[in-house]
Amino acid sequence: MTTLGDLAQLVGGRISVDSKLKITGVSEIQSGISGTITFLTNPKYRKYLTSTQASAVIVSKEEKVKYIATIRVENPLLAFAKILEHFSEKLPFDTGIHSTALIGNGVKLGDNVAIGANSIIEDNVEIGINTRIGAQSFVGQNSVIGKDTELKAFVTLYHNCILGNNVLIHSGAVVGSDGFGFVTDKNIHHKIHQLGRVVVENDVEIGANSTIDRGTIGDTIIGEGSKIDNLVHIAHNVILGKGCLVTAQVGFSGSAKIGDYVSIGGQAGVRDHVEVGSHAQLAARTGVTKSIPGDKMYAGMPAKEIHEKNKIDVLMARLPKLMDRIKELESKVAELKSKK
């Protein structure tokens, strides 16, 4: 049994009622369920505070709330994330090698490793303690996987790739495939072989069906703590810094260099051999065609600082009326000329 007091202690918050109030789970504020806890971060949802059936709500320390139990914290969303983890279903973690898995020669397995059904681990692979390889996954020869890492089902890790500790890779992701490299001579495209690696540092998450290409000579590097959404493509020799957030359908061309703690919206793109400075923010569908400094927000194609892009959008919206005005003025000028 979990009480409100337990949850307050978990998130370091202050409660407004009896700490022994029972909490059985979580729910959304607009469709709250009795016995659950919800949260408020977006002012648009404040209207539901008086109607929600949830038994308690997580709010900021400044929020004024009546008629419902609260836990007040500095960061309600972070607190709710911890509570979601508390109530999340704990799926069984079977250790050992499934009877249908194929294990190559010279493979080194740490303690408590799990390898799922029909997975293939090629020669000379190293896998750290408490790491789990899901069913029908593939790990290529000479690859190294750290501890406390998980590859979900149907993950492909090519040869000579390096995964750090506490890495999570979701189903369908491919790490270490060839970069797109060809040289054309007399209308024939000759493949440029890719000899580098992919190096994924600690605490990285890679979403479903994302692809990360190996370097041509050097390495493709995914920095510590970066989180990559589904359907993201990272080309050969890209360097993605620490703590980056990359949402769905983003594409990085070869040898792009992304600084630390960069946030990138959906369907944005970065061309080859350009740099994006640390702490930059790219709005959805931003196209980076040349290097841009960090600590700024960008939008549009080609990327511009967002305040400049917004001004351009306003002017573009006025163009039809401006054209009508120009035609009117031209007509008046022509009329005045005809009277001379």
β content, as a range? Answer: 25-35%
Spatial strand sequence of the major β-sheet: 8-11-14-17-20-25-28-31-34-37-39-40
Shape call: flat
CATH architecture of the largest domain: 3 Solenoid
- Look at the structure and name the CATH superfamily of the largest domain: Hexapeptide repeat proteins
Termini separation comes to 94 Å
Largest sheet: 12 strands, mixed
Number of domains: 2
Itemize the secondary structure elements and their pairings:
Elements: E1 2-3, H1 4-11, E2 14-15, E3 22-23, E4 25-26, E5 36-39, E6 56-60, E7 69-73, H2 76-87, E8 96-97, E9 102-103, E10 108-109, E11 114-115, E12 120-121, E13 126-127, E14 132-133, E15 138-139, E16 144-145, E17 150-151, E18 156-157, E19 162-163, E20 168-169, E21 174-177, E22 182-185, E23 188-191, E24 198-200, E25 205-206, E26 211-213, E27 220-222, E28 227-228, E29 233-234, E30 239-240, E31 245-246, E32 251-252, E33 257-258, E34 263-264, E35 269-270, E36 275-276, E37 281-282, E38 287-288, E39 297-299, E40 304-305, H3 306-338
Parallel strand pairs: 4-5, 5-6, 6-7, 8-11, 9-12, 10-13, 11-14, 12-15, 13-16, 14-17, 15-18, 16-19, 17-20, 18-21, 19-24, 20-25, 21-26, 24-27, 25-28, 26-29, 27-30, 28-31, 29-32, 30-33, 31-34, 32-35, 33-36, 34-37, 35-38, 37-39
Antiparallel strand pairs: 1-3, 2-7, 22-23, 39-40
